[in-house]
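Researcher: Next entry in the queue.
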Amino acid sequence: MDILCKHCGEPWDMAELHDIPVNEGTDQCLTFDDARELFYRYGCGVWNYSTPRSKCTHDPITTPERLEGIAELQAMMGDDIDGLASSYDTLPLVDEDVGTDEWIQRYPILGAMVRGQRP
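Model: Structure for this entry, 119 residues:
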């Protein structure tokens, strides 16, 4: 399943988080949780193996509102990356301005996941 960069909106297969080197030129990879945290912080920049890593600098492929929604979902879902990947369809469409509380009202399953409950 894909996860989206909060800086540009580019989709990435979440399985790629298993193969992120600790540093450039090493075969040792980050743990999945560490790679996820770096992806949440830097987006596509997590694949910039230089030290220190920096955030994604790609041109956005979506609207600023959708990028804000991606960032909010990442913050809400935390370590539930499977829930995150399956929640992107709850994001507003291009010209729809909807806040987080309204998403939760529209999508009760998302609200339950945010509260740590199983729907």
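Model: The chain has five helices and two strands.
Researcher: Noted, moving on.
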